[in-house]
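SEVERITY: medium
COMPONENT: batch folding queue
REPORTER: lab tech (J.R.)

DESCRIPTION
The queue accepted two submissions in a row. Attaching both inputs and their returned structure tokens so the on-call engineer can compare them side by side.

ATTACHMENT 1
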Amino acid sequence: MTTDYSSIHEPISDLFSRLAAAADRDQYRLTDAQVAHYHEFGFVAGVRLLNDSQIEHLRGELAELVQPDHDGRSLWYEYNSNESADPDLVLFHALGAWRTRPGFHDMLWNPAFTVAASQLLGGSVRFWHDQLFCKPAHHGGVVAWHQDYSYWTRTQPMAHLTCWIGLDDATADNGCLQYVPGSHRWPLLPITGLAGDMQAIGEVLSEDQMAQLMNPTAIELKAGECAFHHPLLVHGSFANRTERPRRAAVLNVVRDGVCSSDDEPLLAGTDPIPTGQPLEGRFFPLLLDSDPQG
């Protein structure tokens, strides 16, 4: 019988450390310089979240999840073996891994993630949803330029944060993240597609914005390192033509208190949250209370 881990709002394994006391958070805190970089440029990168054994464990779970007949396949919010329209450029993209496997479930409560996320959000951390992005060797597809919040306007106000975690070394050659520094100050842009034309966003950019887009920053990361970015930061990633895969897990969170702005379910198969009510309940657990002493 398939276990749905979304009903368990605490770690269920010893894969990650746990916070026993408020003082334990200090070892995981970002420096003032890292926080300042995030606010100035819209991102901070190179933060280590996973050790080698954690990486191998998650890779093992991922190997099961990419098989179409895997146990737990009914629990995904969204599952695309290839979101690209071009069969020669493959982009595996799925939402909901935390419901299906213990490691991806427990990663949500990894203090190396939650403490840093609380600093950048300026408050308590509540889960929004996770993602897997995998580009196979030789023919890995692109993720077109976009802003995350363009896809998230059904939750308001905008107090969101994305954490992109490498399960392989990510380089400019194999399709690492590319950021447009400072674009988190741009207004909200319309959706122009996620896995098709890399340059489709150009249809909605000014000349100045387009010039900035042409000079992005490649975010090269070692496996186990992450990059945090702002929900309006324009980002994407190019194709993988190398002999190595480029696999990543993404954790998307909000500052506690963000509300639903849609009476329909926010994610496929979840319980509806009425407009104006805060995210909470089974599918949106609180990951870290910024004031555990109350």
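ATTACHMENT 2
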Amino acid sequence: MTATNKITETNKMIENQEGIIITPDKILFFDMDGTLVDTNLANFSAYKKAVDSVLQPDTNLVYNPEIRFNRSMLKANFPHLIDKELEKVIQLKEILYDEFINVTTLINENVEVLLKYSKSNQTYLVTNCRKDRALKTLNHFGLIDRFTNVFYRKFDDNNKKVNKFENAISILGVPPNIVIAFENEEIEIADAKSAGITIINPVIA
């Protein structure tokens, strides 16, 4: 089989996932933000309060549920912020997140898969979230015990974010063809494919 044919077959596997049966030998990877838990409003609210605290006046930021507010959006909205102020906002946002954890909500479709298959399969949280925030969120919903283990955000020696799926697969020492990934971010889905995972967000038979 040529390289082109292999790519075509892989794409078919990714696209044709209706009726996937999860057997006990499959390993399940779950992202957290946007996959198991909708944390967008809590994240935005913590950012807004942090910005208001640092800049003093009301910043008039408007919540958009379709977009996750992040460091890049912070820079875009407040280009005058110096690096010291930017880091202060981000650090304060992490502290303030606790105040808004009650507005986070479960994404039931994926949580139901986790609850069902954590009884028979290895299930791992594979997230780019900070460890402390991930633990707070999972404990809030009583989900931490549903995972065999948890992989948090990691950076390489050059302070570059690593591919979280490649990292988990490498540490576990498992072939990617037995992994099923649940992920909502397009960039992270691309990372899953790059790591060799071919079953992503399947419809469960």
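NOTES FROM REPORTER
Residues 1-16 have pLDDT under 50 and may be disordered.
No errors were logged for either attachment.
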